[in-house]
Fold EFR3 homolog Ba (S. cerevisiae).
Amino acid sequence: MEKLTFYALSAPEKLDRIGAYLSERLSRDVARHRYGYVCIAMEALDQLLMACHCQTINLFVESFLTMVRKLLEADKPNLQILGTNSVSEIYCLYLFGLCVRIRMAGIRGLQGVVRKTVNDELQANIWDPQHMDKIVPSLLFNLQQEEGIERSPSPETEKEKESPVELTERCFRELLGRAAYGNIKNAVKPVLMHLDNHSLWESKTFAVRCFKIVMYSIQSQHSHLVIQQLLGHLDANSKNSARVRAGIVEVISEAAVIEASGSIGPTVLEVFNTLLKQLRLSVDYELTGSYDSFANMGSKVIKVHEERQLQEAVIKTVGSFAYTLPPYQRSEVMLFIIGKIPVPGMYPALGSVTAGFQSTNILTALPTSFLDPLLSFTLMEDAEIRLLVLDILIGIIDRHDNRHKFSPVRIISDISVLKLKVDKCSRQDNLFMKKHSQRLYRHIYLACKEESSVQRHFESLYTLLGLICVELANEEVVVDLIRLALALQDLALTEEALPVYTRCAIHALSAVYLNLICQLTTVPTFCQHVHEVIESRKKLVPFLLPEDVLKLEKVEGEVLFVQTKIAEILGGSGYNTERLATAYIPQITDEDRLSKRKSIGDTVSLQLEMESRNSPEKEQVKHPRLHYTAECLYVCVHLLESYLLSAVFF
């Protein structure tokens, strides 16, 4: 053996012929049942493989793998163990009847081949599809064998602390960790095919586990390649069942969270295009009842509840990707998603987009390009949309986790128990309020007039007003907020056409908000006046307080907050009350006059109509209002796609 090794090292060009000769001898000896010679041939080949480190041993490795395959195909377990323990590569799935000892030996052999070929720079050989298509499914097969595996009591396995599943996972991670940029596709494709062939997408658990291993094992700069393959696979399964597509979407969502620590980079546009395409297709399937353009007898049955679940999963996945983006892009993405939702009733799913939204710069988080259309959605007839928009605004403005401290809405004599986190307004906060405050106030005022508003709307309005006061208020803003609260009181008194509940709720909102502001300003006489009015309401008209909003009677006298008295009090404390002496009257714009819009589609009509009004051309085109139907929204998705997508990324 020493002479043979010396000869091979001295003349590496002869190594290929040595391997071919040993392979031929082994095949002949196996056929003649001369197992002693088989062991000698394998031992010789093992030692040569470990001793030789030249860069041109491809044919020798091929001879070695041929010998290993010959041993694995033999019907003798001892020969199979010999082959796998000789740093073998497994070319087929393990048979169910083999014992754990053989399985462990095979996995270790595969691990050894991976290490050996990589160290000898033979990646091109090991990463070829013909090898990966056999290696990866073998590993995945063993990963699935969580239960029902009994260890052999033999001394060899007692020394092993790892189970076959644990060893397989370690081997799989090592394989993926060695994958270079050009090899990622060949390594991931067999995973996708294995999940397809064994119908593992629907259960989701194993598929998610596999891709968590993939995402955590590969080099972080390559993670976007995995996302691209998943997106392509989702497209390829567009006409598969909703449960299969939902499983793929779930995997993409989990992978997006992991990828956030790496580089999402070039996949952003592709992610949103693919996911929104799937959302549109799902709605199409739901409306037509078929996976084909024209329904036919052979079409699969569409299960509406599964399609709805898929739609929600897609929206949440878009939210997961949005969370990995910088704040300014996340803001745009939220608007992008709102404009893409094609099915009524799906709006609450968008709450996941604002979850965890944190931004130190409010100007970046709420740019004009995002705030303008977002506020316009607060004027729609659909109560769900209005509630969603309020929730988005609350999530963005709340930078100190104060939102939950305003719930439930109630009169509190000492707000210190809320433990509100209040910081001094930054320069960016002041600039934001100087630029956008009047528009915010106007839309809050108009939102209070919506007749379809219920308790949740007024609770959200109070939380929004409270956060503005805590997060963004300087002295001038405080005065404007008091004006707004008093204007809401006047609104409830004068707008007799409003429902009784709405008028009571507006009175209650005004009271609880002034109770908050007066304690934040720490002006004793202001607090005293507010406290006196609240006490009078408790005795005379408790239904004008948030705890007991029931009915509306004639309201006058001491149960109302007096604007002149508040102005006099604040003026004595150093506040500039010139603005407070003037009642707040919102400046209604053309957009607000057309506030009774029923859907996102009507927003498009409004924008087009306003553009035509501002056009220098004499002729102005009027656009009819659209009705809020699934079919209408489906069409609107196509109209909005190019406009909103360009707004997000350019």
